[in-house]
Amino acid sequence: MLGRISFDAWMPFIGVIVLIVAGSFFFPQILSAEYLTQQLQIAAFLGLLATGATIVILLGHIDLSVPWVLTGAAILSTALVGSGNPILSVLAVPAALLFGALIGVVNGIGVAILRIPSMVWTLAVNSMLLGVAVLNTGGFNPKGESSQLMVTMASGDLLGLPVSFLIWITISLALTYFLIRTPFGRYLRSIGFNEKATFLSGVSTPSVVFAAFSIAGMCSALGGVMLAGYANQAYQSMGDPFLLPTIAAVVIGGTSILGGRGGLFGTIGGALFITLLTSILSVMQIGDAWRNIIFGVIILVMLLFQTLRKGAAP
Amino acid sequence: MSPLELEVSDMFDSTTPLLEMQDISMHFGATKALDGVDFVCKAGEVHAVLGENGAGKSTLMKLIAGVIQPTQGRLRVDGKEASLNSPKTALKHGLVCMFQELSLVPDLTVRENLLLGAPGAGLGWLKGRGLDTAQSVLDRIDGADIKMSQRVADLTLPQRQQVEIAKAIMKKPRLLILDEATSALSASVVEKVFDLVREERDAGTAVLFISHRFHEIEALADRISVFRNGQCVATFAKGAHDYGEIIDMMVGQKIEELFPEKSPHRNEAEVVLDVRNFSWEGQVRDVSVTVRQGEIVGLGGLDGQGQGAFLMGLFGLLRKADGTTAISGQPGEIKSPKAAKHQDVALAYIPEDRKTEGLILDQSIEENLELAALGRSDLNAGDAGLYAGTLDQLALKHGGLHLPVSSLSGGNQQKVVLAKWLALKPRCLLLADPTRGIDVKTKTEIYAILRQLADQGTAILLLSTDYEELIQLCDETHVFFNGEIVASLSGDDLTPQNIIAATLNVSSEGRVNGATEGQVAHA
């Protein structure tokens, strides 16, 4: 399996090591187990979102509805728990996942059936979800709380590792297996390269698009549930800061933004790299403004790098 | 070239050819479209260029028209080295090309199209100069009813070609390239166009003439060059060789040797594919076709006469298509390619454009081979044995199945498309021009495997733009015109004359059937 992993996918891991080594000269505490496990825990939130985004980007599309699927799932799950009804509170996590899958289906309808560019359609869906959330809460922070399960998922430890990290890696492994071993995975990449030829090969391409967007929606929703568990509440716009880092993590992980080429292994590295970079920048007391500029530059450099490499190949 | 030689060639201006190409090569990636071609074109002469599809004729014309630049080689106009780096430069030298793909802008009027790129156009005011010439040309070639204010989109295909001709002539060419310029015109109009061309020639214009119709070349050409596989294999005066010899030069071997022998016709054989009254949005009208076991049935006609849509419709690619399709007597509704490839139906479709429709160029040969078989529950797509037989028989040349399919040449790519579908053991194979732009050797291999499949009981429906395929390979050929089958030819009726006549919807004597729309069905 390691043989399939391209050099591009190893790059972010090299970047992570460079960051840790370089950072430790200025802040020796970076090398502590405590700091590193905390980074794993935080990387898991971004990593889950980026996992879903990778699936959609492999397909040759993009999902910009991540922020408000995440927020919606968080509001829904905390509200169910906050109702005090024990049955509703058990249903909180499944309901949030169902919500994510549903929005994925809505995205799929726009992209596969109505054939509207995903960049426009998912942005519109994101905006509508924002509207619904504001209507629902009147613009105030929604009431509610997290269940014990949600808190454990976000902040628990198992065998010395954060539960959130284990969930992320388990899902990544399962989906990687799915991508490599099933026709679905082959179809996904084939559509990313050339949808027409895939359809003409007798593949029901709309079903693949639906499945991919549903998986992405569920990943975003799970991320939302866990973030709500982490903060023990949901709040408006909690997903907004995640959109750019999510796409950055996928691109840094070596997945082509044009679709077809890439995989989840690189995305794991991408999410770790972004999380670590954010953390080190904030330790160095560099402001949000510079952080955003740096993210933008990293995305551009990675895209440039991919384009140049592609141009160099015969 | 030394200064002395230059002087000498200048002194003999009368014998200096208008255009001289020396050792010209044109490579597209690994494909050599032209390979060391020497070509000379003299003023006051009609020079016909012959060759199969993909022989390099169109590439040569594009080089002369300045659309593309050669990979290597030298080009001289009036004995002086020239670099034709844009169509504008070519036009400055008086090199005018009328392309076979129509180059008119559909949404502009005839007048606007004629003035596009006319001398003196560009920045500044549009001048009407030259329009008189265009109008008189149109009048002479039966185009008097074309109004200058008509939108080109509203013109029929023949009318557009007439406008193209007028547009080319009003540029006052010194070298006029006619690339399949008369393919849509009826015989009487073609004769008038030829008169015009002869007049231009006598006035000192050099004419390069590309056509697939031998009688046109017979009527017009003074000199003939034959191209094969990107090389100019012979240049001679008309009459020096007869048709048979010329065809042998074009294909490099005798035509009969290219095609496998047909099987004895079996009228009582089981019907595999039975399509009744197929119609689609006015573009395909009431088409019925049956294919019996062991038969290869051809679909012919000019581009876009409905034959392509018909094939796509059979494979479930068209919405709102009417008609019934029965496979081995079982009626089935085929709504999508997925339904079409299901083992109960087992249709396979080889699309027209292998690069964008047949293959995923970025993926490996292996992955491409597996893509169609993956969705079939009765097959294990990962089993290399599914494809090995076909690949061996077609002699696929590759450096490893894990390499990207884009590393293969065009002919080998088409072999991958075939192997991908033949792995599904289709009961009926639909092919849309599978040999377009492919070398002769690969063509022969594809013909052999198609005939073998037919003998083994696969029904084959072959759309082709190549008359020879329709005649030599097919047991029966249906010719489409304007969405309908206007002729169904088999046995001794399957002749080039009959196919060409049906293609243009004229009877063999050369009269146009039907007034304008060609609604008259052929016998």
In a few lines, what is going on in this structure?
The complex is a heterodimer of chains A (314) and B (523). Chain A has 14 helices and 2 strands.
Q: Supply the CATH superfamily name of the largest domain in chain B.
A: P-loop containing nucleotide triphosphate hydrolases
**Residue share in β-strands of chain A:** under 5%
CATH architecture of the largest domain in chain B: 3-Layer(aba) Sandwich
Topology order of chain A in helix (H) and strand (E) letters: HHHHHHHEEHHHHHHH
Query: What is the overall number of helices of chain B?
Result: 19
Write down the domain tally of chain A. Answer: 1
Quote the average pLDDT of chain B.
80
Distance between the termini of chain B: 63 Å
Low-pLDDT parts of chain B are 1-13, 508-523
Radius of gyration of chain A: 19 Å
The helix content of chain A, as a percent range, equals over 70%
Structural class of chain A: mainly alpha
Largest sheet, strands/sense/barrel of chain B: 6 strands, mixed
**Judging by the overall fold, what is the CATH architecture of chain A?**
Orthogonal Bundle
Largest sheet of chain A: 2 strands, antiparallel
Which descriptors would you attach to this protein?
heterodimer, A: 314 residues, mainly alpha, ABC transporter involved in vitamin B12 uptake, BtuC, two-stranded antiparallel ribbon, 14 helices, 2 strands, 75% helix, B: 523 residues, alpha/beta, Rossmann fold, 3 domains, six-stranded mixed β-sheet, 19 helices, 20 strands, 33% helix, 23% strand, disordered C terminus
Polypeptide structure, described:
The complex is a heterodimer of chains A (314) and B (523). Chain A has helices at 7-26, 33-58, 66-82, 86-90, 92-113, 118-137, 148-155, 163-181, 183-193, 195-200, 205-231, 243-252, 264-283, 288-312; strands spanning 157-158, 161-162. Chain A is mainly alpha-helical. Chain A has a single domain (2-309), classed as Orthogonal Bundle (ABC transporter involved in vitamin B12 uptake, BtuC). Chain A has a two-stranded antiparallel ribbon with strand order 1-2. The radius of gyration of chain A is 19 Å and the shape is globular. Chain B has a six-stranded mixed beta sheet, sandwiched between helices. A six-stranded mixed beta sheet of chain B has the order 16-17-18-13-19-20, sandwiched between helices. Chain B has a four-stranded antiparallel beta sheet with strand order 2-1-4-5, with no helix packed on it. Chain B is globular and about 70 Å long. The A-B interface holds A 183, 186-187, 189-190, 193-194, 196-204, 260-261 and B 317, 336-338, 340-341, 349, 351, 356-363, 367, 370-372, 374-375, 381, 420.
